[in-house]
């Protein structure tokens, strides 16, 4: 998925937000960062996906301020907040498991998608606790059925993680997949970028106790294939099922890796048009042979 003109306002808002985070008491430097970004983005190749463009902004802010992880405090708060909600969510899944007509995997997937709201790269109002409490079967039945056909006992499932907070809810999904007999591996970013989860976050929320956790090599808020390590690309090729979490992964992999499943909250009109869903919807789609999304 390339970067369109519609993406430009978001990138400028990101520059303003990150400038304020990096140097809150220096408005002059904030202005310099935003001006420098305006100049740099004009020269970038917009045939790249948005997460590849976002890498350049993160690098620019680091270079001009020396600040390497702008969202460190935010990430810890998001993880702690969602972890405080887990007892009630586990009760919900236990009830689903006990119900003969229940669908614990489907509900765990929907909970993990709701967690994708926690994205500091996109300004979107949401009621996380309200949606988690009212979780319902809203994703594509066809895509979910296809996922279940592939995520069977013995299948190697690779989950491409996205944001902090969200990774806490992903532990529920990992647990359900393991109950089905799947061999699950969870992937995180290799470098702090926006509020995306890294290995430190995986340890903090207990993901490393559930399944193998690996770094993809990327320094982008999405699995941009050109930024992955060769070893991680091999891991992707070897997986029986790949589940890409979040809009950044959808943007980076749409049209690039046929057969993957993408699970995300739709956060902008561009992705709404790509998925055929409204902004704020939960999306679960299966990429066909040419990499395009379908139910």
From TrEMBL:
Residues 4-281 form the Damage-control phosphatase ARMT1-like metal-binding domain. Gene3D superfamilies: Uncharacterised protein PF01937, DUF89, domain 2, Uncharacterised protein PF01937, DUF89, domain 3. Pfam families: ARMT1-like_dom. InterPro entries: ARMT-1-like_metal-bd_sf, ARMT1-like_metal-bd, PH1575-like. SUPFAM superfamilies: AF1104-like. This is Damage-control phosphatase ARMT1-like metal-binding domain-containing protein. The lineage of its organism: Bacteria, Pseudomonadati, Thermodesulfobacteriota, Desulfovibrionia, Desulfovibrionales.
